[in-house]
Amino acid sequence: MSWIKDIVNPKMRQWEEFYRNRWQHDTVVRSTHGVNCTGGCSWNIYVKNGIVTWEMQAIDYPKLESALPLYEPRGCQRGIVFSWYVYSPLRIKYPYLRGVLMDFWESARAKHADPVEAWASIVENEEKRHSYQTARGKGGFRRATWDTCLEIIVASMLYTAKKYGPDRVVGFSPIPAMSMLSYAAGSRFLQLFGGVLLSFYDLYADFPPASPETWGEKTDVAESADWFNSKYIVVTGSNLNMTRTPDAHFAIEARHHGAKLVVLSPDFSDVSKQADWWVPVNAGMDGAFWMAVNHVILQEFYVERQVPYFIDYLKRYSDTPFLIEIEKTEEGNVPGRFVRANRIARYRDTDNGEWKFLVFDSRSGDARMPQGSVGFRWQKQEGQWNLEMKDGQDGSPIDPQLSLIDHREEELEVSFMDFGGGRTFRRSVPVRHIETIDGPVAVTTGLDLLMAQYGVPRGLPGDYPANYEDDEIAYTPAWQEKFTGVGRKTVIQLAREFAVTAEKTSGKCTIIIGSGVNHWYHNNLHYRSGISALILCGCVGVNGGGLNHYTGQEKITPMASWSSIAMALDWIRPPRLQNGPSFHYVHSNQWRYEKTHADYHPASGRFAREHCMDLQVDAVRMGWLPFYPQFNRNPIHLVDEAGEAGAHTTQEISDWLVDQLRTGRTRFSVEEPDLPENWPRVWLIWRANALHTSAKGHEYFLRHYLGTHSNEIAKETAQESVQEVQWREASTQGKMDLVVDLNFRMDTSALYSDIILPSASWYEKNDLNTTDLHSYFHPLGAAVPPCWESRSDWDIFRALAAKTSELAKKHFPEPFKDLVATPLLHDTPDEIAQPEVRDWTKGECEPIPGKTMPHFTVVERDYVNLAHHFNSLGPGIKEHGVEDHGIEMKVADLYDEFAKLVPSYEWGGRSYPSLEDAKYAADAVLFFAPESNGEVAYRGFKDRERHVGLPLADLAEGQRSVHYSFSDLARQPRRILTSPCWSGIVNDGRAYSGFVTNIERLVPWRTLTGRQQLYQDHEAYRAFGEACPTFKPRISLEDTFNIVESKSIGRSITLACITPHGKWHIHSTYYDDLRMLTLSRGVEPFWLNDKDAAEIGVLDNDWVEAYNDNGVAVTRAVVSARIPRGICIFYHAPERTISFPKSPMRKNRRPGGTNSLTRMRLKPVLMAGGYAHNCYRFNDYGPPGTDRDTYVIVHKLEGKPQW
Amino acid sequence: MNIRAQVSMVFHLDKCIGCHTCSLACKNLWTDRPGTEYMWWNNVETKPGTGYPTLYEDQELYNGGWVLEDGKLRLRLGSKKSELINISYNPRLPTLDDYYHPFTYRYHDLIDAPPGDDQPVARPISMITGEDMEIEAGPNWDDSMGGSEIYAANDPNLKSLTEEERRRFFELQQLVYFYLPRMCNHCLNPSCVAACPSGAIYKRGEDGIVLVSQEKCQGWRMCISGCPYKKVYFNWNSGKAEKCILCYPRMEMGEPPACMHTCVGKIRYLGVVLYDADRIEETASKPEAELVEAQRDLILNPFDPEVIRQALECGVDLKIIESAQKSPIYKYVKQWRMALPLHPEWRTLPMLFYIPPLLPVTATLSQEGYYEMDSDFFSSLESARLPIRYMASLFTAGDEAEVVAVYRKLLGVRIYKRAESVGDISMETAVQALKEAGLTPEDVEGIYHLTAIAGADERMVVPPFLREQAIEMGVDTQDFQEHRGFGELIWPTRGL
Predict the structure, then answer these.
(1) CA distance A1084 to chain B (A)
(2) Which of A334, B81, B287, B333 is the most buried (most CB within 10 A)?
(3) What distance in Å separates the CA atoms of residue A621 and residue A844, rounded to the nearest whole number?
(4) Torsion angle, CA of A431/A435/A439/A445, rounded to 10 degrees?
C-alpha cells in the first residue's frame, strides 16, 4: 500500500475509542417539541447518566401508500438543538417572585392570616400596586417557594372573583395541538373556576377567515405527503424550506414526478430556490395577481371553450349556480342576496325556507330548491342535508344552469367596485325574472355575477375590457401589473398552465399558502381570489389539489374528546371562550390609538361607521362575538340580585338580565373598557409568550396591561370617531393586578411577569401532539423527570386547583351560581338565528337571548370541590357524549369501559376515572376520540348519516376494533383513523386531503348553501363591497397612521416592515438558543436591499434603529440584493432579552422586537355572526389580529451601541 | 489490482433546503466542548458566497490540495522539505477571523439582574475570553445571501463569469442562490494525510474513513493548510487537529452518520464503492479535463464477476461486496453519471459527490419595468439563472459539457414523468428529451425512485463493519464483551 496511509495495527488505532465513548448512551425516549411549528416530529431523546445529551429524529412512522415518499426523517435545525435549553443558563429552575412584590406579600401576610385579605391589602393600595407594576420587566427576581407562589395566585383569583367576578381572571395558552394536555391543564382549571380562555389562532392572524367564508371550516388542509400528488404547485406567502422544514421535501420530490413549482414571493426566499418560476409579486398585493388569473381562466376555460370536468364540478360543489337577486338601489343595481326559497309559491311553506335557496333548473325550466343548504341541516326532517342535486321538496332531479347567458330575459347593468383603482364599473349581467310572493324579482346566477365582477367580456354591454391588454379595467392581466409588479404574460401563462393541468388531472393543482399572505389586513380577499382559481378548476377536495394553508399548528386532531376534558365539559358547560383579537384590541386600549378604519375599509349602510370599535360593540351586543368580562357587574352578584328580584330559574334570570340591559342598568363591559370594573385583573400565561410574541401592539400591552415603561409615542385619537363606546379622558395604565407565567426558560413574558413558575420542558413530561402537516398521533415523553423544582403543566394546575379548594373553604364555602354569556355558535341552530341584521339596541327587533343577542346561562360552581372536579373525569361526558362539528358521539358504555383502564378517583361517595396523571388524561383523550378509537368514529359516522341521509359509516367499518393508547404511541406514532369530524379519507394509506368526503360522499360544507361559497351575501359583506371575490391593496402609509409623531432623523428611509417566520427560531423559541444565534448573526437582524441601504449609508452588519409611533427596535442590518427595494424583513419574533442595545432616539430605553412596531387592526366585516357559516366558534371565526400593514423609519444607529 | 472499499456519499443539491440540521446533529455529537466551539465538521454554505472559512476556495490564498508539476503530483503547500523548514511557522493557516470568533451571551443576567430602571438584556461575550464583544462574523454569516455585496460578490467561482454576467446576477431577473453542504470528502488522495509531518492522519483500510489520531497528532497544523476544503480544524484546547470522522462509532452500529440520518431534505446518500487503490496516483495525475471521468473510472462495477473475484482475493468481505451492489452511490456516480466531485482540480479525489441543483428560470423586465418570466415550463438550461460555467467551476474543473449532461438527465426525468402523469407535454417530446439525456425509461424509473421515493434504508446503505473481526486483532472478542464498560470514566484532558 504505497499511496494510501493505512494503519492496521490495532494498538495504533486504540485511540479510536475516544469518539466511540462519546457515542454511548443509556436510554432513548420518544418525544417531540411543543412549539407551534406544525412539525409534530418524532424525536429520539438520548439520555446518558441521567442527563439529556442530544436528540435525533425517529424514522419509524407507519407508511402511507407505496407510491408516496416517506415521512422520515422529520425534524429541523431548531428541533435538534432543543436539548441545549434543558440545562441552559436560561432555565427556570425554581419559582420566582419579583422582590418588591415579595416584600409586600411578606409584610401583608404578617398582618393578615388570610391570604385573600393579604392580597386585598396590596392591590387596594394604589401606591403599592403602582410600585410593583412599574418594576415589571426590570429585574429583581427572587427565588420563592412553590407554596408562596400558589398562595398569591389563588388569593388574587379568589379576591377578583369575589369583588369583580371570575370572568376577570383570564388565561392564555396557544396551540393545544402542540401539547394538548398541558394546554388542557390550564383551560380545565380556568373553566372550573369560571375564568376566561383567550383564543390564539385568530390572534396570531394565522387563522384564514377565507376558510370559514368559503367552507364553513376554520382550516382543513392536506397533510404534506399529499403535495406529492399535485401536478402544479403554487407556493405563495409561505417559505416551505424555512417554515415547513420537515415537509418541504414532498414539494421538491413532486417536481421530480413532473410537477411544476411556482413561488410567489417579493423576496428571493429560501423556497424560491426550489422553484421553476420565482415570481416577485409586490408585498401585500397577491390578490390582484389571482384576480387576473381568474379573469383568464374564466375567459379561456368557461367562455371560449367549456371543460366538462369544471362545469360538472361547479354545478355540484359550488354556490355558483344559485340565484342571486339584483337589488335596485338609488345608485343603481347592485348584487343582492341569494333568493330565499320561501319567497316563491312552490316552497312557501317549506321548513326553514329563509335558509334554502334556488337554482334555475334546465329540466323544468324553472327555479328549483336543491337539498343541502343550512336550512336542511336544522330542519325537523332529517336526511336531506346532502349534495345530491335533488329538489328538497319532492326529490326530483335538478340540473342547475350555471349561467343564464343563453336563457336570459334581460340584461341589467350592475355596479361593481374596483377598490384598487377606486372606481365603479357598470357591467351588464344576464337576468331572468322569477315570480315571488312579493312580485317579480330580477335574478342572475353566482357564475354570471363572477363573470361580470372579473370583467370577462361575453358580448354584454358595459365596462368590460376589450382584451387582456386593457390596463385600465379590472381585472385583466394588464390591469394587475401596477399592483403586483408582475407582467401580464406571466399571469396569462400561469393561468393557462394551471387550468390545463387541472383539466388533465381532474384537479391536481394546489396553492400552498401561509402567513406571508394571511397576515395582511385584507388577507381574506387575497385568499378568496386564490380559492376561486382552485374552485373554478375543480381542485378542492381532490388529492393533490386544494388550498393548503399552513400557519400555526392549529389542528387538534382529537378535538371532540379533547375539548370535553380541556373545557371541563364533563362537569360544567358552557365555557367562557374569548376571541383574543377583540380582547386585546379593546383591553390593551389599542382601539384608542386608531383614528378611523373608514379611510381604508369603508362601508355603506348600517356598517358605515367611522371606527372599528363601534362595530366591535355592535358585534358583542348582537351575539356575534363573545366578550369578557361580560358586564360592568360581577356575574355572581347579578344572579344574587336577580334572585332578590324574584328571578330563580335560568329563564327568569335571563329575562331579568335582558331587562337590565335594555334599560341600561347593566351594561356590557365592552361599552366602557376603561372603567375599573371592566378590566381584566389576573392573567395566567402558560406555553406562551403572551406579552411578546403574541402581543401584537406589544408596547401597548406594556403600558395598559402591565403599567411598566413602554416606547410607543402614538396619540390617542379615537375620541372623535367613536359613538357606541364610553370615552374616558384618562387612558388606563396597568390593568392587571397579577401576571403569572409558567415557563422553562427566561423569555420576555417571564421577564415581565410577577410570578414565574418553573415548568417541565418537552423532554420532561408526557403529552400528546398532532398537526395539519402529517397524519400521526405523536407523544411527548418524559426522558428525564422534571428538572430542578419544575413540574409538568398538568401538575402545576392540579396544585393550583388544590390550593383553590383549600382557600375557598373560607371565601366560597358553598356552591354558587354564575351567569355566563356566550355568543351565537357555528354548528348549532344558532346558524339560522339571524336571517337579516337587526339591532335590538336600535329598537329594530326584540332582545332575545340566543337569537338577537348572546345566550345567557346560569351555571353552578363549587370551588371547595374544584380540585376533585379537576382530578376526575366527570359524568358530563357520559351524559352528553363527545361532540365536534355538530356530530354527537354517545360514549356512555365506553365511559364505563374506560373506568376499568385507569385508576379510579373517589370523592363525594362516588368513583370516577382518575385524571390525576397527565398520562391518564392522554388515555382518556385517545379513548373517546373518533380519530384514535374506531368505534367512536363509527358512531360519529352513524350520527352524520342521520343528517346527511347517505351512507358514510362504511368508511369506519374496518377500523371499529382499533384503539390506540398512550403507550402504543410511545412505542411508535400511529396514523389517525378516518373520522366523521374531518373531511379527509385516510384508509389504506391514502394521504389526507381536505374536503374529500364533501366531494366523494356528498356531505355538505357547513355553509349557507352547503356548497363552497364564492359569494358572500351577508349584509356586512355587501356593505363592505366584499360579496364577490375582489382585490383591496395593502393599507397605505398614510392610512396606517404608523408615522405621525415619529420624525426622520439623519439619513433615513421609510420602508414597509415585513415580519415573516424566520429560519433560526420558531416564533421566539430557539431564538435565544446559542446554536441558532451562532448560525445566524448573533441577533435577529433587519434585512434591507443593498440600494436602500446605500441611500442611508448603512453597511452590512451596521447597527440600525427602526421605529414608528408604536415603538422601536435596534438591531444589525443585513444588506442583501435578495430583498426588493421599499421593504425590509424583520423575522418574527426575536426575544427583546437577547443582544438588543438601547435606543438613543427613545430616551435610551431598551427597545423591543418585531411586535414593538405593530398595532393590531381588526377588519370589521369579519365580525358578522348568527348567519350560517358567518358564525362564531372559538379560534375558528372572527377578525384576526392583523399587523402586517406596517411601516417603519430606518436609520443608522448613532455612536456605539449602549447596553 | 488492489481492490478496496470506500464509504462514499452523494449530496443531491436539488433537494437541499439549506436547513443546517445536518450541521447541528454533528455539532451536538462531536464539537460541543472547549477547543471545538468554532468547528463545524459539517457546514452548509450559500452559493454564490465565500464559504467557511471565508474564501477557502481561493488556493492562491491558502495553497491547499495538489498541483501537477511535470506530470508529477505535489502538494501545493510545498515539498516535505520546505514544510519541515516552515514547521513552526505555517503561513497558510486560516486565522480565527477567517472562521469566526465564537460567542455566547451573559444569559445569567436575565435571571439574576437586580432591580433596576430598565429591562436587563443578555449581551454578547466571547466564548474564549469571556469578555464583551461585537459579533462580526459567524460560521454561516452569508446565509441566503446576507451581505451579498461583500460575500456573494466575492465568490471565487464567479470569476468564471463575464463582468456583465456578474453585474446582472445581482438583479432580480437573474438573482439566485443555492446551498452547498460540505464535510470531509474522505478523499482517495487526501492532501491532509500527505501534509502531516507526524504521520497522525490515516485512511482506514477497511472503509476509507480519514482520521486524525488524537494520540499521534503533534499539532503542526500542516493538514489544515494541506486540505483545500479546510475540513481539518485545530482544537486550541487539546492542541490537536480534529475533523469529521464520518461517525464511525454510529456506522459501526449500523447507523448512518448523524448528518445523513438527520437530513430532512433527504438529499444525502451513502454506500460503499469498490475501487482500485493502485490507480489512485495515476488518476489524480490526469489532465484537468479528464479528472471527472478518470475518477468515475476508478470506481469498479461490483456486479462484475472479475471485480468480485479480485476483491475477495484482496480481502474484501463478501458482505461488503454485496453492500456495494446496493450502493446508491454507484448508481448516481457511475451508472447514471449524475453526481460530480467538488473542485476535482484540487486532485484529492474527493469521495463525496454532488448532483447540481435545478434553479428557477430567468426573467426580463418589460419596458414599463414589470417582471416577466421566461416562458420555459420547467427550470431549464437555456434560461439558467447561473451560467453553466459557474457550476463547471465548482464541479468539473471547468468542463461545461459534463455539467450540461447532468442537467439534461435531471430535466429528462421530469419531462418524462410529466408526459406520463399529466400529458400536457407529449410523449414524443419526452422521448426526445430522454434521448438527448442518454437515458432509457428504465433509467428514469430508477432515478425517479432514488430521488423521490427511496426510504432511509435505500438512501443510506451502511456496510457491515464486522466489528468482531476488528476487535479480535487486538483482544479476544469475548474478553472484550465481558469487560466492556467497566472502570472509571476519565474526563478528557486537552480534548482527549
Answers:
(1) 12
(2) B333
(3) 13
(4) -30
Mean pLDDT of A1048-1053: 95
Closest approach of chain A CAs to the CA of B203, in angstroms? 5
- When pLDDT is averaged across residues A286-290 and rounded to a whole number, the result is 98
What pLDDT digit, counting tens, does each position of A1054-1099 carry? 999 999 999 999 999 999 999 999 999 999 999 999 999 999 999 9
DSSP string, A978-990: P-TTSS---GGGP
pLDDT of residue B496: 40
* pTM of the shown model: 0.98
* Separation CA A109–CA A89 (nearest Å): 33
Count Cβ atoms within 10 A of the Cβ of residue B382 and give its class: 0-12 exposed, 13-18 middle, 19 or more buried. exposed
Predicted confidence band at B495 (pLDDT cuts at 50, 70, 90)?
Answer: very low
Note the pLDDT tens digit of each residue in B387-446.
999 999 999 999 999 999 999 999 999 999 999 999 999 999 999 999 999 999 999 999
ipTM reported for the complex surpasses 0.90: yes
Are A273 and B176 inside 8 Å of each other by CB? yes
B1 vs A contacts (CB less than 8 Å): none
Give the residue ranges of DSSP H helices in A196-236. Answer: 210-215
- Which letter does DSSP use for residue B190 in this model? -
B 183-242 residues inside an 8 A Cβ radius of A: 188-189, 193, 199, 201-205, 211, 213-216
Q: Give the DSSP letter of residue A1154.
A: G
φ and ψ of A375, to 5 deg: -60, -35
Phi then psi dihedrals of residue A517, to 5 deg: -105, -40
Nearest-10 crossing angle of helices B441-448, B400-421: 90
Q: What is the largest CA-CA distance in chain A?
A: 105
| pLDDT given for residue A10 in this prediction | 80
Give the Cα separation of A1017 and A213 in Å (integer).
11
Rounded distance between C-alpha atoms, residue A490 and residue A292, angstroms: 11
The pLDDT of residue A698 is: 98
Cis peptide before A629 (omega within 30 of 0): yes
- CA-angle at B31, arms to B25 and B36, nearest 5°: 150
Position A238: which residue type? S
**Cβ A240 vs Cβ A253: under 8 Å:** no
Residue A1197: predicted pLDDT: 97
Q: What pLDDT is recorded for position B89?
A: 63
Q: Mean pLDDT of all residues in chain A?
A: 97
The residue among A1036, A190, A1093, A88 whose CA lies nearest residue A682 is: A190
C-alpha count within 13 angstroms, C-beta hemisphere, residue B389 = 10
- Helix pair B441-448, B427-437: axis angle to 10 deg: 80
Number of A to B CB contacts under 8 A, please give it.
378
The values of phi and psi at residue A276, to 5°, are: -80, -40
- A636-665 confidence digits (pLDDT tens): 999 999 999 999 999 999 999 999 999 999
Angle at A34 between CA A30 and CA A36, to 5 degrees: 140
The alpha carbon of residue B349 is apart from the nearest alpha carbon of chain A, in Å, by 12
In 10 A of CB A716, how many CB atoms? 15
Q: How far apart are CA B440 and CA B431, in angstroms?
A: 9
Taken in order A1072, A1073, A1076, A1081, is the CA torsion positive or negative?
A: positive
CB nearest to A1138's CB, from B121, B143, B366: B121
Nearest Cα residue in chain A from B384: A276
Cell of B296: 468515475
CB-based contacts of A407, cutoff 8 Å, min separation 6: A360, A362, A401, A430, A432
Closest C-alpha to A203, from A552, A592, A563, A670: A552
CB-CB contact of A347 with A391 (8 Å): no
| Shortest CA gap A73–chain B (Å) | 6
**Chain B CB contacts of A99 below 8 Å:** 115
